[in-house]
Design brief:
The complex is a heterodimer of chains A (about 425) and B (about 270). Chain A has about 425 residues and is α/β, with parallel strands linked by helices. Chain A has three domains: about 150 residues, Glutamyl-tRNA reductase, N-terminal domain (Beta Polymerase, domain 2); about 140 residues, NAD(P)-binding Rossmann-like Domain (Rossmann fold, 3-Layer(aba) Sandwich), CATH 3.40.50; about 70 residues, no CATH class. Chain A has 15 helices and ten strands. In chain A, strand 5, helix 9 and strand 6 form a beta-alpha-beta unit. In chain A, helix 5 packs across helix 7, helix 5 packs antiparallel against helix 13 and helix 13 runs antiparallel to helix 14. Chain A is elongated, with a radius of gyration of 31 Å. The model of chain A has no long low-confidence stretch (mean pLDDT about 85). Chain B is mainly α. Chain B has two domains: about 120 residues, Four Helix Bundle (Hemerythrin (Met), subunit A) (Up-down Bundle), CATH 1.20.120; about 150 residues, no CATH class. Chain B is about 80% helix and about 0% strand. Chain B contains nine helices and no strands. In chain B, helix 5 packs antiparallel against helix 7 and helix 5 packs antiparallel against helix 9. The two termini of chain B are about 25 Å apart. The mean pLDDT of chain B is about 85. The chains are: A alpha/beta (about 425), B mainly alpha (about 270). The interface between A and B is medium-sized, with 27 and 27 residues.
């Protein structure tokens, strides 16, 4: 009941290689079907995101070359030369594959440490494979365990709670002030890349209304259409500033575009409703003196970057706790796996002993004259009882063994000594 | 038995406080849930402690200052837990529990009142006092929420966004929680005061007996209605409304202590 993992991620492969080996949902289903049909894997699951493509599987017992076969399959499926792909691929087996998956689900292996999206992606990949019937008892247990670990790490540590980008830090701060953003309005000044990132985050939080202002009407229109917003003419400042709860400014300008005096009038005109301003411009777009206005919250790019750095340190501080949760669950999975293997090994041993007994009695019975068929059956039954009794105590002790490492070693020892034709590979 | 309930309540409130602190610092869900559970447990044992006291006195348990303090602590905890469940927000618990503990301990440790007036009876009286103390507890909670608001707002203005700020409720939610608490307080004080007049009328046959407490209670009522009105005005919403709320609670403290102890005739002990 081995587990094999072959894949690549943002650490092992550049984006040019990763994008060639990614799977859509339909491709994942197709690959799972083909891998099983070809006998490479018994159980299969494909996990593919923008930062990783991984195939998890349980190979048929007699197959030793699953990792190599999987690598070849990936190469041929995506029509990528194997010698181009091989340096980027990693192979993990058994406990290392389990640990890898649990770390992935927990966000410990992500480009952005502790990111939350990956857990949903793991859940989706499992759902697709499960509905297809591509998973079996091992992968079902493995991925259920992965989802459990992911949830636990997120609820028991702060790995995923703090924003890790300027854009998400700004949006989280807006939520500190306004709570949920579903009834709030945002105004974006400037339509550059960073504005786009912030707007994307605001839309993820279901902000109610979005307005865009830019010197170039075309760019403003593009951004507005992309995120279901409305354009306000660049000259229409007076009415524009009374609308939003959140302003995101990243305008290219040598001087501040909004001065304190102007903002003071604006705040009065909007009845001093709280206003949160993210000034992402360099040089700054908003007069810093405006920060002292009542209900006016001003954060520039340095302030947001500092928050991100604090959060990075904080998240890194949570890693040991997260790793120990992962280790705990790896232990639980291996305990389950070993128990199942033990049952299998004991059953195989029982069958083998029975077969050996049958041959033994057949060979020796011919040398003993005068045994009737009935007497022979009695002798066989006696030997069977003796073998069962000899097997029972060790099996019980093995089952009750608390030390996992010892248990695995003992199961391995039985397998190697008594069932050499079922030898494990690594 | 009373001693047992005291110990159980103390253990529950202390445990709850520790769990809420753990939730605020470490952010672990289970710590927050434990805080809420222990607080609920403390409310139950505190209730039985009050019941025991009432049985011992053969009257309502808030017959004197000590009893009133104990009931105040209980109602403060009850109001907070209700608000926590309604708004689904646990991070304020660490700030409220010290007050609950303080009032509970003060009630237990303060000596009995030597000048105890004859026990007052009647359902109207019981509800009058309970609702009035509930109002004070609700106003007290809104004061704590306003203090947290001002603290968090100051940290946000100064860009000192650390662990605790991420775990506190948003400013908007603190504002709404404070208003919810004040609303509970206003309804309680309005009904409680009305029942007070009903009780006086039944006792003396005359609904009006001048007592400075009436004036101060009216002042409290007006002050909080004014707060609610202003808190919905964008110009006042936020720090100004919070400051007003804290000021209003100073009037409540004045009413509960100075007026009761030195100026009021009928409200000498509560």
């Amino acid at each position: 009941m081995e587990i094999v993992l072959v894949g690549l991620n943002h650490r092992s492969a550049p984006v040019e290689v990763r994008e060639k080996v990614s799977f859509s949902n339909d491709q994942a289903r197709q690959a799972a079907e083909e891998l099983r049909a070809r006998g490479i894997l018994h159980e299969t699951l494909v996990l593919s995101t923008c930062n990783r493509s991984e195939v998890y599987g349980v190979p048929p017992e007699t197959t030793r070359e699953s990792a190599a076969a999987l690598s070849n399959y990936l190469s041929s499926f995506h029509s990528v030369q194997l010698d181009l792909l091989s340096p980027s691929l990693y192979h993990h087996y058994d406990r290392y594959a389990v640990r890898h998956l649990f770390r992935v689900a927990s966000g410990l292996d992500s480009m952005m440490l502790g990111e939350a999206e990956i857990l949903g992606q793991v859940r989706e990949a499992y759902r697709i494979a499960y509905e297809q019937g591509a998973t079996g008892p091992v992968l079902n247990r493995l991925f259920q365990g992965a989802l459990e670990v992911g949830k636990r790490v997120r609820s028991e540590t702060e790995l995923g709670t703090r924003p890790m980008s300027v854009a998400s830090a700004g949006v989280k701060l807006a939520e500190r002030i306004f709570g949920k953003l579903q009834e709030r309005t945002a105004l974006v000044l400037g339509a550059g890349m960073i504005s786009e990132q912030v707007v994307s985050q605001l839309r993820d939080r279901n902000i109610a209304r979005l307005f865009v202002m830019n010197r170039s009407l075309e760019r403003a229109d593009n951004l507005a259409r992309q995120f279901a917003g409305k354009v306000i003419a660049w000259d229409d400042w007076e009415s524009a500033l009374t609308l939003p709860d959140v302003i995101v400014s990243s305008v290219s300008a040598e001087e501040p575009v909004l001065l304190r005096a102007h903002l003071e009038k604006t705040m009065a005109a909007r009845g001093n409703r709280p206003l949160f301003v993210m000034d992402l411009g360099v040089p700054r777009n908003i007069d810093p003196a405006a920060a002292s206005l009542y209900n006016f919250y001003l954060y520039n790019i340095d302030d947001l970057t500092q928050i991100v750095q604090q959060n990075r340190t904080s998240r890194e501080g949570e890693v040991p706790r997260a790793e120990s949760i992962v280790d705990e669950h790896v232990g639980k999975f291996l305990t389950w796996q070993t128990s199942v293997e033990l049952i299998g090994v004991v059953e195989s041993l029982r069958h083998k002993l029975k077969a050996d007994r049958a041959e033994f009695v057949r060979e020796r019975a011919e040398r003993v004259n005068g045994l009737t068929v009935e007497q022979r059956e009695q002798v066989e039954a006696l030997i069977d009882d003796l073998l069962e009794k000899m097997l029972l105590d060790p099996a019980r002790r093995l089952q009750g063994e608390k030390d996992l490492r010892r248990k695995i070693q003992q199961v391995e020892a039985i397998r190697e000594l008594f069932l050499p034709d079922r030898e494990r590979w690594r | 038995m009373n001693h047992l309930f005291f110990l159980l309540t103390l253990a529950a409130y202390v445990g709850s406080f520790a769990a809420y602190i753990g939730y605020l610092i470490a952010g672990t869900d289970w710590s927050g849930r434990l805080g809420s559970l222990l607080l609920a447990g403390g409310l139950v044992t505190h209730y039985f402690a009050l019941l025991e006291r009432a049985r011992g006195l053969h009257t309502v348990p808030y017959h004197d200052l000590s009893g009133s303090m104990s009931l105040f602590g209980w109602l403060l905890a009850l109001t907070y837990l209700s608000l926590e469940l309604f708004h689904r927000q646990r991070s304020v618990g660490a700030f409220v529990l010290p007050f609950v503990l303080a009032f509970f301990l003060f009630a237990q440790l303060s000596p009995p009142d030597r000048l105890a007036a004859p026990p007052a009876t009647g359902v109207a009286f019981a509800f009058h006092v309970t609702l009035s103390i509930l109002a004070y507890a609700a106003f007290g909670l809104s004061c704590v929420l306003s203090l947290i608001y001002l603290g968090e707002q100051r940290l946000l203005h100064k860009h000192r966004v650390g662990d605790v700020v991420w775990r506190l409720p948003s400013l908007d939610l603190l504002d709404r929680m404070s208003q919810s608490s004040v609303l509970v307080g206003l309804i309680s004080i309005a009904i409680g005061t009305a029942l007070g007049f009903v009780w006086v009328d039944r006792l003396t046959g005359n609904v009006w007996h001048y007592d400075p407490k009436y004036v101060v209670t009216l002042l409290v009522l007006v002050a909080y209605v004014f707060y609610l009105r202003l808190a919905r005005n964008p110009s006042w919403r936020g720090a100004r409304a919070s400051q007003l709320c804290i000021f209003n609670f100073a009037i409540v403290i004045f009413s509960f202590t100075v007026v009761n102890l030195f100026f009021s005739h009928a409200h000498r002990y509560f």
